[in-house]
Structures are given as structure tokens and as C-alpha cells.
Amino acid sequence: MVLRTERFIRPQKKRSFVMRNRHPKKQGPRRITRLLIFFGRMVFMAVVLSALLVLCFRWAPPPTSAFMLKRHFERPVKGKKPVSIRYHWVDWKKISPYMSLAVVASEDQKFPHHWGFDLEAISDAVENNLKGRRLRGASTITQQVAKNLFLWSGRSFIRKGLEAYFTVLLELLWSKNRILEVYLNIAEFGDGIYGVQSAAETFYGKRPSRLTRSESAILAAVLPSPRKLKVLNPSPFVVDRAGWIEQQMEQLGGIGYLRTI
Questions:
Q1: Element housing 109 (H / E)
Q2: Confidence at residue 165, expressed as pLDDT on a 0 to 100 scale
Q3: Using 50, 70 and 90 to split pLDDT, how confident is the model at 128?
Q4: What's CA 261's distance to the chain center, in Å?
Q5: Is pLDDT above 70 for 1?
Q6: How far is CA 216 from CA 95, 101, 102, 139, 220, in A?
Q7: Which of 24, 37, 45, 50 has the most other CB atoms within 10 Å of its CB?
Q8: Pair type for strands 193-194 and 188-190
């Protein structure tokens, strides 16, 4: 009698390779949230760093400005010889009060009273532009410092937005005296001639503390276009504008007006 041994093999259970549901619909919002957090941190860091930079220059003289750097490098990029930049910092107390008053009278007569923006001038400029009249500038001294020190020239919305941002920072973190002091030191008075120290030495052979009222008015008269308008051998336009500036200096009350700054 033959005995058969049968092997009873238990059937193995099939392993399930079904992926767990990872909720693909939730991945999109999570990625957007992560991106928003990332950009939020970047913006926060940019705000902190820019505020620290502005705060630093409240006491330290700026070694240069964005406009000076652009002026220095723009010609070599085109294969031309770089412009010689003349820039020497001078403290507020060593600048003639006539020079300080002249730039306020010519550029921003409401400087002591506004918070960085002359809303009336902006409104007039917008109205003139809409009517197709000649474009009029509405930039305050604070806005010009923000642009010249940190930014670049141009009319883009990005640049204008950054200018407004730095203007607010300057008004919050600097005194009016400091804003005017930096403006007088980084403004361009001639081709490659930056600051009242370099301008006084180059054009008049004297220290900025010894500038007269008429000399200060001439220097302020060329500020709208310092590479075209000349301090030495000034054109009739510059002479007329300097005369108007002197009249405005008188109407403001003379150098006593600076006490309100």
C-alpha cells in the first residue's frame, strides 16, 4: 500500500502596494504657504538691513553714494576713460549757512515742515503732467538724498517705490540737520564734483565755510543740471536763477530761517 504525502502549502497573502493617500489637493496650498513664508522672511531681512544701513549713516559719513559709483563705472563699461570723482566730506558746522539756506530756497522751501513729501508740489506736478505741460520736479531734499545715496536714476515704479521707502526711513531715523548735511555733501555741482567741499575748492579756491551769499546762490542754481549748467562763466539762465534764489533767501528770513531746521 503506497502512502502519499501531500504538502499543504498555505497560500501567501498578496502584499498590497497601494500608496497611502497623500492628499495631493493639499500640496498646492502648502507650497504657496512655504513660498509666502520664504518671501516674508526675505522682505523682513531686507527691511532690517536697510534700516541698519540708514541708521549707520546717521553718524558715519557715507564713503560714497550710488550716483558716484554709477558715474565712476558707466564710462569704463562703454570703453571710455573713467571720470575723476572729487568728493570730500565736510561737517555741518564747517559749511557756510548761506550755502545751506541757498539749497533750501532753491530746492525745497518747505523742508523744515514736511515729513519727506511735499504733497502740494506733487499734486501740481501731476496736474501739469496730465495737461501735457512741461514736467515739473516735485522731489524734496529728503527724496533726493534717498535717491542719490542709495538708488539709481530713472522713472520706474520700482525705483519710485524704493525712493519713497528710503525717504520715510530717513525722516524717521535722521534729523533734518543730518539730511541737509548729507545732501550738501553728496549733491553734484559739476561733472564729477560732488559735495560742497569739492565745489568750493574747485570753483572758488576756498573752504566751504567762507562761501558768500552770491557764491552759494550760484552753486545752488546749477543743481538741477550740474553737467550742463556752469558755475564759472555762468549762462544768463544761471545768473537769473541765482538772483531769484537770493530773493527767496531774503523772503525766507535770511540765515535765521535755518533755526527752524
A1: none
A2: 96
A3: low
A4: 21
A5: no
A6: 10, 9, 6, 21, 6
A7: 50
A8: antiparallel
